[in-house]
Amino acid sequence: MIGLQRVKNAASTIFTWILAITLLQLTQFTQKQGEESLVETWLSVLIVGVLFGINFTLISNELRKRKQSINEMSYGGLILIYALIHMVSFAISMLIIIVILGLLDNSNKTSDLINEISVFIWSIDILKVYLYTYVISIGIFLVRIVNQKFGPGVLKGLILGRYRKPKEEKLMFLFMDLKSSTTYAEKLGHVKYSEMIQDCFSDLTKAVIDNHARIYQYVGDEVVLVWKYDEGVKNSFPIKLFFQFKETLQNKANYYQKNYGFIPEFKAGLNGGTLMAAEVGVVKRSIAYHGDVINIASRVQNLCNQLNNEFLITKNVVSDLPDILSIYYLFVDCKKLKGKQKMINIFGVHKLE
User: Which of 239, 262, 248 is nearest to 176 (CA)?
Assistant: First the structure.
């Protein structure tokens, strides 16, 4: 899944660059109409767009590999790095473009081509192109940062004003909370405890991407994840995410034991159904969800210790989930949750070892 997501990101980046260079080339073409052939113009657009798209994608992937050092940097530092790397990638891209166009232009002699390249390099035009491509590069980078902050799809919804008026949606919510958090916070102290929470949520990233989850919010040592109901049920994404995250923490047992003296474990509650989504706030805007669905998910998660289960789920979701060979559901209790009149059947989610 993560590979497919990267392919999609790469494709969207390349398309953005082709569009950006097309706009630039259209402006230049209207100013110098007749100086270049139409074929050469659009060939230039395609070459420039693809090269810059590939360069930007490769840079992003390289930075992603250095996750630990990048996480410690400020956004200003990241922008500076992108500025320096863009300068190098710009020079490489321009060189490749000039060579390709030179090889395709059989009418010019080598000396004429070298002269044209020299004139272009020392002209104000190359500075204009560089500044334009730099602005596009930083723009793409900042959009990705904002998109990561709000979560995939939320930024688009805010821009389009999709949630200005409350809108009914069918979603599923997974609440995950650190077990014995108070005990560990007292043992570690607030600084070390905060570092441990950072590590946990960083290790959650791959499971989030692989299972197409959107992070609704972090509240202390709790994280709330959300899916479109039909998509989440059809693919059992919440179930897969929880056990993938659990496996990740177990695989890093030595790291957590060495740095914090214990291996973190999380408990979870899952519920789904129809509720209202609305854009809230003025100074800081976000999408908020209102309704019993999210409240029940939170309260079910709070029952994990009492019912001696690490993962609890409501009956209405269990009924819709497809069978998974390694997963089974056991009825735990029929509870009347706080503030609710109806009894709710609760099941424990278990994985065969």
Answer: 239
